[in-house]
Structure formats: structure tokens, C-alpha cells
């Protein structure tokens, strides 16, 4: 094997309370695509941010072309020929493509910015590597796939030999992802070395030459693509059998409690994100919504809960038409909602647990009467729920922001379930939680189903959908492209999530 | 496509049917209605003002019905305002009108506008780099006092400008440290700067000039007499003998535009104001850029202040001399949509209304107040989005935390 | 500790606060630093003010002693109700200023609790003054009680409406309340100079030569309970202001309205999710803020000013002092009360009350502005003071910073 272009040796990085990287070593050969595989929170991004000079490692060294280097900023990494395409693009919408690319390393004409040269160089680069994009267009006017190309061009413009792509397909459509893989191949052919960060097994197997698996901050193994399988990688990545089995009886569906009919919803930028979804959720069943992030799930939930206006279509709760109602009314007709981002939306972190539990009912007896609030009653109610839901780390007067993520989520769940909702919408209910909290919440969700609630589970974790749902809806680009009851393979759903079925249907 | 085809067939009538055109035409006519009553046209009957104003209102309503509501209401309001002001003008005597609206009004407009020009440019630098600068008023006030102090003790107005600019820069540096390094709230910090400047200037004004006035004979910033133009009948009083700082203000506007929009430095400054993380990841030192811009902002605002005391004011200082000009400059910056040319235009408009207000004082205190309050009302309307929409840099006011 | 997500390291509470709303960050730091932070903030401001005083050749200790006495705070050493005693008279005047500052502080604090920065307290105060003067001068034939109540109510509502404009603009089109309240301040200022100026509608009817308002009719003047009306005695407005502190606390902590306001202030997204109308609360909180400031104007006008002139307008800065009062008092009722007393004492003690030769009132008056500026500067950045505090604790027992802060 040739001398590695880049080596990381024994990298350790600690954040308060978390060991993000623990003695990780990694090497990159010239002209290879090396995948860094791991679950969310496995330490992939931290490792790359260290390599890119954004964090300083607590221990370990970085060697570039055999020489040890120390980067104290992104500028150092850039000068050393390392380029990074971040998960969230670092582009300025109000500037042109060319301006974004040359920013920080501008061609000059005397004192002036030489826009002609900038555009010419961008054109040259985009032709050489097959990255088609108009240098004079404003970034705000191009597609997400094009934005990613601009990011890659930014790195190439700075002479990057090593390219880090951080979860590059997360925001792409399958077509765009296919185009990206073509670009990666042409870059590899041109002698560039690429680090490809992902948690998607199929992608890694498609594009990588070698694969390094990280789990909980530690390196598990580095394997060549040949011989690696989804099963072997998954085991290394998760460290246990993939499916979390949840004990549950078969569902006994009752009346239709939530029905959505031909729903259309637009996002903040007025782009239609939900394009004609129709489905029903019955009492006593869990309906899982599977899909890649950004395929309309967020807008669907917000529309059902009254947080976002509905463009057209109808929403009924227990037969009652509640289309276009306010968030207040949706709560009143019996829709409970565990939101996908508990810190941004689910909790007022500065409020106490008691005040958070009252977030929906603060204005009704017994919490309040005629506009007068009774804090002691809030505390009383919270005390019971803290016990029932096993919230640890504080009492009713503890600030919600001081709790761990799992206990915060229990507070949210307690509030929503205690209101005795007919319909419970659980969005990403276990994201970022430890195993204990995940199991608790899963059991609880099944228990609420058995009490006769209609549960709509939206999750990006296919495992969670498969193990909890009685029925699965697969969404893709704002439409339902698949519906499954009973046994279904992960592979089948995965295919539909990427729009596979839609093409054949259309 | 069909719309384009129609335009090609009959470009003129299509253009006229465009609601935007009728809206802007209404606004222009509204302004015209007001101008008909004053020199040099000076229509003495109300007929023309009313006719033109009504046409403006009709254009406005037409525009509203065609969907451009904000523009339409703006045109209708301009028409009504034009009628009102036009009628007001006819009720004043010809002599009064002639003494209010003459060539010297142009010079006075520039004189009132110049502190605003410097202040607005100062604000643009700071905010384009992502730091809100509510403290313009205080920085300007510091420049006003220490500038005249420098000119007095240094014996020369140029020393005054240097001292004023330096003190303004130091004040801005303190603010920058709190706003950038300590990431304190920028509005709170800017408010603190205003209080601090008020206290410091007032304190040292009394401490250094016991009798509460600056002695006569301080070296003042000179006027620039343009040979040939100065003696011309109209241009002479208008621009023939303007203060040096007025011309410097014009230069500053052009230089700022060039720096911000035509040079690599400007690109980087704007990047820091729009998306500091993006700037950071390509190796731009966001803190350094923001420090530089805030300090430059302090220097420019202070120069505006020096002009106020040692140019416009003829080498004097009074407590709280800026009297809210820093806030009008802030308003001009917002009104001008954070662009040098726009801010310059707004500063001229606000300077004009101040100049008119001063001249109207004698004849009609009420009308004078109306012109004084105009900048604030217009800015309030602008932020309310009635006429167009102002858009601040995306990261304006958000402290940046390095990773 | 919160769970780390995939991309970012866990944040320390300070960092988490920096990304939240201003009120969320202030509240977090408040819990971290407790009462010590505002005290240190004030001390540091006085210390730096003292440095300036010393540098210009005055003895800062003596100067501060004289300001203390000038404010009548030495009254506590020999309390008396006899207003011929200088200390008692000075104290009564300090309390007169405190009355105004309590309400102006609440005007800032209430908006803060809803996540907004009301810089427009000054303008709302002026509107209250104007309306109280107008109603107080008209209706001179009325009985005292209805006349006073009507004048106070009208001024309070007017202040609420004036601030409500900014709240409405924010709710309707997202106009930043700082910009709109600044503009409304200046509009209110010019409105005053038009109303009371030459030929203005509220100019003194008897003397058209001076730009000054009419005097409030006797029936609308508030009763004075300490001192003589002619000598600017202390009126019952003080009790109204103290009651306002209680009302402020009750609204925020014992009503559903207050719950909504606080939820919107801390986290508008969560509030909307909880079924609370964010827009309604923005308008309502601004209006309540403005009501406090308008009430301040009413009490000043009916309590001891009785008339107002164009030249008085630029001299007044109580609305801006309210910002320092609220920030130093951490937007709490008790804090605002104490902050108002501090700045009330400074306001009177550095000007009319100051009789010593150590430092002239003209200097001392500006010293107040400096201290005010420094207080606001340091309060806005109490990361600085928190840092000092944490370092101290860390030295004492080697605990990690995030535990101290949490």
C-alpha cells in the first residue's frame, strides 16, 4: 500500500460529560474513498472537525504526507489542502455562486475584486470535474444539489487534495445522490482522496473503497469494501442485534380517530412539502411514518397540530372536521403531540417541570380560574406525574433545562399523555436518548396504544418504526408511496423511502 | 410568456398598465403637487396642486386594485400629503416662500445631512459585519466634544478631527470588546455607550471648560470655495462654498460603496454579517473583521460629530449636542436598506426636512415640527414595510461564538 | 447536562443561553450569579466612576459621601418627619424620583419578560405626561376623585396605546421593537414641542409668549402626604408605584396572562406549541409596559410637576434610566424597586441635593449618566462578572464551571 496522504493517530477529544473521541486512529490513502461509518453521536463529526482545525484534540496527532501538523483554525487546514463540505452548507444566500467560492481567497485586480477571473476559474473547475453550476447565479436561487456542488467547488478552488464530505446525501434526492456519486468517482479518478461520512450502509457499500466504523467515540474496525456486507457493518456499527424488539400484543384497531384527506401543506419558503397525503389512524393502533428527513414529515405534523396553515385538504379528529384550526383548538379536541425537537419546541427550558407540565392547561381549572393561576396546584399535579413517569433528576420546581435529555422527554410525554388525548403524535420520540429511556418510551407508547389511543409515530429511525408500528406509511417528497401491514422487510421500505417505488408507479 | 408577448406588441401601454409604474408615478405626482406651491414654480392658486394630487391618489387606488397594495397606499398618501402641503404653501406669503425655498436651502440641506451621512455610513460598516450599532449617537457625541477640544488645544481643526476620530474609535473598541468578545447583547451594549458618552462629554465639558462654553476663536473646519462656481447666481449659494466635511462625506459614501461591493475586503465584511460560520470555515477571522468594522464605525460616527461641533457649529459645544442625530443616522441607514447610496439618499431627505424645519420656525412652528418629525415617521413607516421592505444583514446583532 | 447531538459538542449553560432569547440568557445568568452579580455590577460602576472623579482632581470618597447626603439617605441615621431638616427634605425628593423610576423600570422589565426590549419608555412617559396635563387642565370643574382617576386612567391608556404601536408592528410585520420604539420616542418628543410650543394646542392659555403648558387644575392634583405642595412635597404617587410593583409581580406569577408572557419571552416556539398566541402576547406585553410608563407620566404631572415646558423635554431622561433600573434589578419586582431607589438617589443626590464643594452638581449630574452607562454595559455582559465569580468558586472548591452555573 502506498504511503497514506493523511493519518490520524490516537485522537482523543473530551467535552464536558462526554468522551466524543477515544483513541481513534484513521488513515487515508491517496486516491481512495474512505467511508467513516457510525450512528448519530458516534463521534464522526467531532473527528472531522478536529481534522479541519475547528476543535483541538486533547490527545493524539495528525500527520499529513507523513509530517505531523497542528491546525489551530480552518485556515490552517485549508492551506494544507484539506477541504470540508459541511452537513449544513456554509453558503451565503445573497451572494453569487462565484462570490461564495472565492470568498477568503479572492482573485484581485489591483484593489478590486476581479469578478471576471473568479467566474472564469469557477467555470474551469466545474468543467474539469463535471460539477455543473452557473457561477453568476445567486445561491438563494439554486437547488440543494447545486449548493452541494458549490461547496465541493469551494474546496477544490482552494486546492484541496483531501475532501471531507459530512453526511452528503442527507439532504439530497436519490437522483441527486446518484449524481453526487458520479462526481465523487470523477474526483477519485483525478487523484483526490475523499473521506465520506455516513450512517447509511447501502451508500457506503456503493461508493467507498475502505470503511472505518466508529461506535460511541471508538474505532471498531477498518475493512475493505470487498467482503463487507450490510449485516456485518450494521453489527459493528450498533454493537448489538439491529432490531430493538418491543413486546406487544397484536393491535385491535377500533374507530377512526384521525383522518387526513388529500392534505397539501407549504413550508416557510412557500414550497409545497406535503402534496396530497391521505391516511387514517384508528383507535388502538400505531401508524408509523417512515421516510428520509425533509420529505414532508415536519410539515405534516405541524399541519395536523395547528402550528402551520393548511393549503388544502381536510383533517378530522374523531369524525369532527378540524381543518385549519388553531393550535389551541387542536389541543382541545384531543390531539397530543410529542414534538421532534423537545428543546426548541417541547419545553420552555427556563420554566420549572411543573410549569412545563401546565403548558397546555395553564388557563383551565384546576391550574387556573378566571385568569388567576394557582402555582401550588401546578406543583401538585407535577409531583404525581413525575412519579408516574419516573422522571429523575429533580422535583416539580426543578428547571426543565437542568434535566437530562431522557428525563426532559419524559416530562414532555407525561404532559401529553396526562391530557388523555384521543390522538397522540410522537415525532422522533427517542432521538438522542440513552437505551434505558428509549425502552421506557417505547413501552409507554405501546401501553397508550392498548388504552385505545390512535398513535401516529414519525421517526427517521427505521428500527423504531419497524419495531413499534402496526402499520407503516412510507413518505417520499410529500406523498405516501407505500403502506404496509404485518411483516415487511427493511429493504423494501428502504427502497420506497428513496422513491424507488414511485418511479415504477409513475 | 403571453405577458411578454403583449409587451412586445405594445411596450408603452403595457408598461403603463403595470401596477408598479402607476404606483411610482403616483408617488412622483404627489411630490410634484407639493412642489407646485413653492419656488421656483410657486403656483398661487390651489387648482394645480389639487388636480395633480388627485391624479396621484387615483393612480394609488388604481395600483391598489391591481394588487400592489403597499405601493398603492404609498402613492395615495403621497397625493394627499402633496395636496395638503401645496395648499399650505399657497397660504403663505410669496416673500416667506422665497426666503424658505432658495438656493441656500441646498447648502443647508447638505450641512444638516453631513453628520447623518457619516453616521449612516458608520452604521453600515458595523452592521454589514454583523454588529448592531445603537451606540452611534454616543460615538458621534464623543467626536463632537473631543473634536472641538482637540481643535482648541491643538490649535488646528485637523488635530480636532484626529482627536475626535481617535476617541470615537476607542469608544467603539470598548463596545466591540463587549459585543464581540463577551457576546453581550448588542442593543443593551449600544444603549450603554449612549449613556456613557452623555456622561463623559458632559463631565469633561464642565471640567475642562468651567464656564460651560468653548472660547471663541477655535480653529474651525474650513469651507471649500470653488472658483467660478462660487459667484454663480444659483450654484454659488448652493454648492460654491460648502464645508470641507460635506465634500468629505460625499467621498466617504463613494469609498464605502467601492470598499463594500467592489473589493475582496468588502466581500469578507458582508460575509461576516450574513453568515459568520461560513466566513470562519474559509479561514476569515470573523472577530478581526468585526472589530475592524466596529472601530471604523466609531471613527466615522465621531468624524460626523466633529463636523457638528467644529464645522457646522463653528467651534462650539453644548451638552448633548447631537440631540438624536445618531438615531436619525441609524434611521437613514435602515431607510437606505443598509446600502451606502440608499443611506445617502435618506440622509439628504432627512437633512432637507431639518433644513426646511429650521427655516419654517419663524413662519409656522407647527409646520416646522412636522418637518422635524418627518425622518422618524418615515422610518417607522419603512420598518413597518408599508413602502418596500428593509432587510438587515442576516447575522446582524447575533454574537458569533468560535468553535 | 443535555444529551449531545450528532454534530455539536454539548453546550455549557452560558453557551446555551447565548443562543436563546435575551431574557432567557439573563435569567440563566441570574440564577448562576444570584444577587451578587447586580451588586458587583453596581459596585464596579461606582468604582470606575470614582476613578474618573479622582483623575479629575476630586476626592471620590468625599464626593460619594456628599451625593449620599444630597440624596437624603443619611436620614436613616437620624430619622425625622420634620421637612425643615435637610436630610428629610432630600429624602422626600429622592423618593419622588424613585416613584417615577419604579414605573419606568417596570415599563422596561415587563417587555423584557416577554422577550422584547422596550427602549421607548421615555416616549411613553411623555405621552402620559401630555395626556395627564390635558385632562388635568380641562374638566377643572370636576370633583377631585373622578378628575384624578380619569386623568390617570387616560394617561395610562395613552402610554399603553403608544407602546402598543410598537407591539403591533412587531406582531404584524415583524418590525424590530427597538427601532420602532426609538422612532416613537422622537415622535413623542416633537409632539410635545408642538403641543406646548408657540401656538400649540396645549400651550399656556394666559401667556402666549412662553412655550409652556397650562397648569393642572387643583382638582386633578394628587394629595401630598409628606411636605408642602408648594415645596414639591412627596405625593401619594409613591404608593401607587409601590402597588405597581406588587401588580407586576402578581401579573407575572399569579395570572395566566403572566404565564403566557413568560412562556413567549423564554421560548416563543414552545409557547405557540402550547397553544399560546405569540402575536397577541407581544402586543399585550408592550401595551402593559407602556401603561406603566404612561402611569409614571401621569403621577409626575399630577403629583408635583403640574406643568411642562418645551425646554423640559430634552432634560428628562427617566425613561432611559428605567432601562438601567430594570437591567440592574434583573426584571424582577424587588430588583426594580431597589434599582429605582439607587438611581432615584443618584438623580437627586447629584443635582439639586448636592451642596458640597467637593464636586459641583454639574459634574456629579454627569457622573450619574456615566454610572448608568457602566451599569448597563456590565449588566449586558455579565459573562464578565460571572467569570470572576466562577473563578473565585473554582479556586475555593475545584468544581467544573457548568455545575456552578447550573
Structure report:
The complex is a heterotrimer of chains A (506), B (403) and C (406). Helix content of chain A is 34%, strand content 26%. Chain A is an alpha/beta fold and 506 residues long. The longest helix of chain A has 16 residues, at 174-189. Chain B is mainly α and 403 residues long. Chain B is 73% helix and 1% strand. Chain B has helices at 2-9, 11-17, 19-36, 47-65, 69-90, 94-100, 103-128, 136-154, 157-181, 186-208, 235-240, 244-262, 264-274, 276-281, 286-312, 325-335, 340-360, 365-383; strands at residues 223-225, 241-243. The longest helix of chain B has 27 residues, at 286-312. Chain B is globular. The termini of chain B are far apart. Chain C has a two-stranded antiparallel ribbon. The chains are: A alpha/beta (506), B mainly alpha (403), C mainly alpha (406).
What is the helix/strand order of chain B?
Answer: HHHHHHHHHHEHEHHHHHHH
The residue-averaged pLDDT of chain A reads 87
Low-pLDDT parts of chain A are: 501-506
Query: Helix content range of the residues of chain B, please?
Result: over 70%
C-alpha geometry of chain B: globular
Task: Figure out the total of helices of chain B.
Answer: 18
How much is the radius of gyration of chain A in Å? 25 Å
Question: What's the tally of helices of chain A?
Answer: 18
Tell me the strand percentage band of chain B: under 5%
Global outline of chain A: globular
State the distance separating the first and last CA atoms of chain A.
48 Å
Give start-end ranges of low-pLDDT stretches of chain B: 1-9
What profile does the largest beta sheet of chain A have?
6 strands, mixed
The overall average pLDDT of chain B, rounded, is 84
Structural class estimated from helices and strands of chain A: alpha/beta
Rg of chain B (C-alpha, Å): 23 Å
Q: Going across the major beta sheet of chain B, what is the strand order?
A: 1-2
Structural key phrases:
heterotrimer; A: 506 residues; alpha/beta; six-stranded mixed beta sheet; 24 strands; 34% helix; B: 403 residues; two-stranded antiparallel sheet; 18 helices; globular
Amino acid at each position: 500500500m502506498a504511503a497514506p496522504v493523511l493519518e490520524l493517530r490516537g485522537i482523543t477529544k473530551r467535552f464536558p460529560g462526554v468522551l466524543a473521541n477515544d483513541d481513534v486512529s484513521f488513515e487515508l490513502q491517496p486516491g481512495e474513498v474512505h467511508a467513516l461509518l457510525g450512528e448519530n453521536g458516534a463521534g464522526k463529526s467531532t473527528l472531522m472537525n478536529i481534522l479541519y482545525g475547528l476543535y483541538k484534540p486533547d490527545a493524539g496527532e495528525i500527520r499529513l504526507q507523513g509530517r505531523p501538523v497542528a491546525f489551530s483554525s480552518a485556515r490552517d487546514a485549508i492551506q494544507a489542502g484539506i477541504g470540508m463540505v459541511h452537513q449544513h452548507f456554509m453558503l451565503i444566500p445573497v451572494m453569487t455562486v462565484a462570490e461564495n467560492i472565492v470568498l477568503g481567497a479572492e482573485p484581485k485586480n489591483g484593489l478590486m475584486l476581479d469578478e471576471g477571473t473568479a467566474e472564469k476559474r469557477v467555470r474551469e473547475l466545474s468543467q474539469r470535474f463535471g460539477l455543473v453550476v452557473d457561477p453568476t447565479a445567486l445561491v438563494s436561487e439554486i437547488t440543494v444539489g447545486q449548493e452541494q456542488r458549490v461547496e465541493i467547488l469551494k474546496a477544490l478552488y482552494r486546492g484541496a487534495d483531501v475532501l471531507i464530505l459530512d453526511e452528503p446525501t442527507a439532504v439530497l434526492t436519490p437522483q441527486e445522490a446518484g449524481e453526487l456519486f458520479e462526481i465523487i468517482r470523477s474526483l477519485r479518478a483525478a487523484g483526490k482522496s475523499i473521506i465520506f461520512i455516513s450512517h447509511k450502509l447501502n451508500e457506503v457499500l456503493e461508493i467507498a473503497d475502505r470503511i472505518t466504523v466508529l461506535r460511541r467515540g471508538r474505532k471498531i474496525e477498518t475493512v475493505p469494501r470487498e467482503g463487507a456486507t450490510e449485516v456485518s457493518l450494521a453489527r459493528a456499527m450498533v454493537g448489538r442485534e439491529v432490531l430493538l424488539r418491543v413486546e406487544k400484543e397484536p393491535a385491535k384497531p377500533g374507530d377512526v380517530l384521525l383522518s387526513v384527506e388529500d392534505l397539501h401543506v407549504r413550508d416557510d419558503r412557500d414550497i409545497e412539502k406535503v402534496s396530497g397525503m391521505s391516511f387514517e389512524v384508528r383507535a388502538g393502533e400505531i401508524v408509523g411514518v417512515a421516510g428520509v428527513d425533509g420529505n414532508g414529515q415536519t410539515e405534516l405534523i405541524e399541519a395536523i397540530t395547528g402550528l402551520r396553515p393548511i393549503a388544502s385538504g381536510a383533517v378530522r379528529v374523531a369524525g369532527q372536521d378540524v381543518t385549519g384550526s388553531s393550535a389551541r383548538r387542536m389541543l382541545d379536541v384531543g390531539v397530543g403531540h410529542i414534538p421532534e425537537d423537545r428543546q426548541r419546541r417541547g419545553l420552555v427550558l427556563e420554566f420549572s417541570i411543573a410549569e412545563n407540565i401546565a403548558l397546555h392547561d395553564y388557563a383551565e381549572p384546576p391550574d387556573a380560574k378566571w385568569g388567576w393561576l394557582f402555582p401550588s396546584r401546578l406543583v401538585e399535579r407535577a409531583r404525581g406525574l413525575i412519579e408516574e413517569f419516573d422522571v429523575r433528576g429533580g422535583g416539580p420546581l426543578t428547571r426543565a433545562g437542568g434535566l437530562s435529555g431522557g428525563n426532559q422527554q419524559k416530562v414532555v410525554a407525561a404532559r401529553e399523555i396526562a391530557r388523555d388525548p384521543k390522538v397522540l403524535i410522537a415525532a422522533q420520540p427517542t432521538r438522542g436518548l440513552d437505551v434505558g429511556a428509549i425502552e421506557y418510551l417505547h413501552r409507554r407508547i405501546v401501553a397508550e396504544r392498548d388504552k385505545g389511543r390512535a398513535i401516529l409515530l414519525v421517526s427517521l429511525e427505521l428500527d423504531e418504526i419497524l419495531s413499534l408500528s402496526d402499520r407503516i406509511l412510507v413518505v417520499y417528497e410529500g406523498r405516501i408511496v407505500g403502506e404496509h401491514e404485518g411483516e415487511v422487510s427493511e429493504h423494501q421500505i428502504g427502497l420506497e423511502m428513496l422513491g424507488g417505488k414511485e418511479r415504477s408507479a409513475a | 410568456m403571453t405577458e411578454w408577448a403583449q409587451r412586445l406588441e405594445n411596450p408603452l401601454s403595457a408598461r403603463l398598465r403595470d401596477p408598479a409604474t402607476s404606483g411610482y408615478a403616483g408617488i412622483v405626482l404627489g411630490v410634484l403637487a407639493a412642489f407646485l406651491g413653492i419656488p421656483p414654480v410657486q403656483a398661487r392658486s390651489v387648482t394645480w396642486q389639487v388636480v395633480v394630487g388627485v391624479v396621484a391618489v387615483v393612480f394609488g387606488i388604481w395600483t391598489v386594485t391591481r394588487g400592489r397594495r403597499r405601493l398603492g397606499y404609498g402613492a395615495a398618501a403621497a397625493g394627499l400629503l402633496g395636496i395638503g402641503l401645496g395648499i399650505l404653501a399657497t397660504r403663505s406669503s410669496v416673500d416667506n416662500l422665497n426666503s424658505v425655498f432658495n438656493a441656500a436651502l441646498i447648502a443647508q440641506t447638505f450641512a444638516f445631512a453631513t453628520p447623518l451621512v457619516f453616521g449612516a455610513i458608520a452604521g453600515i460598516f458595523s452592521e454589514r459585519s454583523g454588529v448592531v450599532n445603537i451606540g452611534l449617537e454616543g460615538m458621534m457625541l464623543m467626536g463632537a466634544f473631543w473634536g472641538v477640544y482637540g481643535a482648541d488645544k491643538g490649535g488646528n481643526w485637523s488635530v480636532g478631527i484626529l482627536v475626535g476620530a481617535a476617541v470615537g474609535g476607542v469608544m467603539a473598541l470598548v463596545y466591540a470588546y463587549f459585543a464581540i468578545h463577551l457576546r453581550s447583547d448588542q442593543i443593551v451594549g449600544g444603549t450603554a455607550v449612549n449613556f456613557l458618552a452623555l456622561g463623559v462629554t458632559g463631565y469633561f465639558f464642565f471640567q475642562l471648560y468651567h464656564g460651560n462654553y468653548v472660547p471663541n476663536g477655535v480653529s474651525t473646519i474650513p469651507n471649500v470655495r470653488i472658483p467660478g462656481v462660487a459667484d454663480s447666481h444659483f450654484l454659488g449659494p448652493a454648492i460654491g462654498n460648502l464645508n470641507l466635511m460635506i465634500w468629505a462625506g460625499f467621498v466617504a459614501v463613494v469609498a464605502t460603496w467601492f470598499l463594500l461591493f467592489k473589493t475582496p475586503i468588502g466581500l469578507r465584511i458582508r460575509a461576516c454579517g450574513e453568515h459568520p460560520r461560513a466566513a470562519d470555515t474559509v479561514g476569515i477571522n470573523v472577530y478581526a473583521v468585526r472589530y475592524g468594522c466596529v472601530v471604523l464605525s466609531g471613527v466615522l460616527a465621531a468624524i460626523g460629530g466633529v463636523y457638528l461641533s467644529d464645522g457646522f457649529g463653528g467651534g462650539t459645544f453644548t451638552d448633548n449636542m447631537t440631540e438624536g442625530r445618531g438615531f436619525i443616522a441609524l434611521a437613514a441607514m435602515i431607510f437606505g436598506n443598509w446600502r451606502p447610496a440608499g443611506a445617502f439618499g435618506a440622509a439628504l431627505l432627512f437633512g432637507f426636512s431639518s433644513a426646511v424645519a429650521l427655516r419654517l420656525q419663524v413662519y409656522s412652528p407647527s409646520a416646522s415640527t412636522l418637518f422635524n418629525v418627518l425622518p422618524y415617521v418615515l422610518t417607522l413607516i419603512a420598518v413597518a414595510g408599508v413602502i418596500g421592505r428593509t432587510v438587515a444583514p442576516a447575522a446582524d446583532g447575533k454574537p458569533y461564538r468560535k468553535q | 447536562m443535555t444529551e449531545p447531538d450528532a454534530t455539536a459538542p454539548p453546550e455549557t449553560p452560558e453557551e446555551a443561553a447565548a443562543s436563546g432569547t435575551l431574557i432567557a440568557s439573563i435569567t440563566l445568568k441570574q440564577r448562576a450569579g444570584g444577587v451578587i452579580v447586580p451588586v458587583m455590577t453596581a459596585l464596579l460602576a461606582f468604582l470606575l466612576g470614582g476613578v474618573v472623579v479622582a483623575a479629575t482632581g476630586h476626592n471620590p470618597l468625599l464626593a460619594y459621601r456628599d451625593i449620599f447626603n444630597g440624596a437624603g439617605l443619611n436620614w436613616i441615621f437620624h430619622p425625622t418627619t420634620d421637612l425643615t431638616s435637610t436630610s428629610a427634605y432630600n429624602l422626600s425628593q429622592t423618593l419622588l424620583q424613585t416613584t417615577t423610576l419604579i414605573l419606568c423600570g417596570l415599563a422596561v422589565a415587563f417587555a423584557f419578560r416577554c422577550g422584547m426590549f422596550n427602549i421607548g419608555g421615555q416616549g411613553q412617559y411623555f405621552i402620559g405626561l401630555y395626556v395627564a396635563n390635558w385632562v388635568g387642565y380641562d374638566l377643572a370643574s370636576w370633583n377631585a376623585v373622578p378628575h384624578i382617576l380619569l386623568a390617570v386612567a387616560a394617561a395610562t391608556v395613552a402610554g399603553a396605546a403608544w407602546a402598543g404601536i410598537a407591539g403591533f408592528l412587531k406582531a404584524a410585520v415583524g418590525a424590530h421593537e427597538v427601532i420602532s420604539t426609538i422612532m416613537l420616542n422622537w415622535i413623542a418628543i416633537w409632539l410635545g414641542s408642538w403641543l406646548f410650543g408657540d401656538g400649540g394646542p396645549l400651550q399656556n392659555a394666559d401667556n402666549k409668549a412662553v412655550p409652556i403648558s397650562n397648569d393642572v387644575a387643583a382638582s386633578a392634583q394628587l394629595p401630598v402626604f409628606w411636605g408642602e405642595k408648594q415645596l414639591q412635597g412627596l405625593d401619594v404617587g409613591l404608593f401607587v408605584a409601590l402597588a405597581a410593583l406588587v401588580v407586576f409581580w402578581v401579573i407575572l406569577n399569579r395570572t395566566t396572562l403572566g404565564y403566557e408572557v413568560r412562556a413567549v419571552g423564554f421560548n416563543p416556539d414552545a409557547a405557540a406549541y402550547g397553544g399560546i398566541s405569540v402575536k397577541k402576547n407581544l402586543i399585550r406585553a408592550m401595551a402593559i409596559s407602556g401603561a406603566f410608563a404612561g402611569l409614571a407620566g401621569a403621577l409626575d404631572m399630577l403629583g408635583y410637576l403640574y406643568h411642562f415646558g418645551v425646554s423640559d423635554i430634552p432634560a428628562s431622561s427617566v425613561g432611559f434610566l428605567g432601562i438601567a433600573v430594570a437591567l440592574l434589578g434583573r426584571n424582577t419586582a424587588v430588583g426594580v424597586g431597589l434599582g429605582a431607589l439607587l438611581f432615584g438617589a443618584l438623580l437627586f443626590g447629584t443635582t439639586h441635593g448636592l451642596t458640597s464643594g467637593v464636586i459641583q452638581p454639574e459634574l456629579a449630574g454627569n457622573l450619574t449618566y456615566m454610572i448608568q452607562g457602566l451599569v448597563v454595559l456590565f449588566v449586558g455582559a455579565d459573562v464578565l462578572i460571572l467569570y470572576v465569580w466562577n473563578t473565585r468558586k473554582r479556586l475555593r472548591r475545584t468544581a467544573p464551571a457548568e455545575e456552578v452555573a447550573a
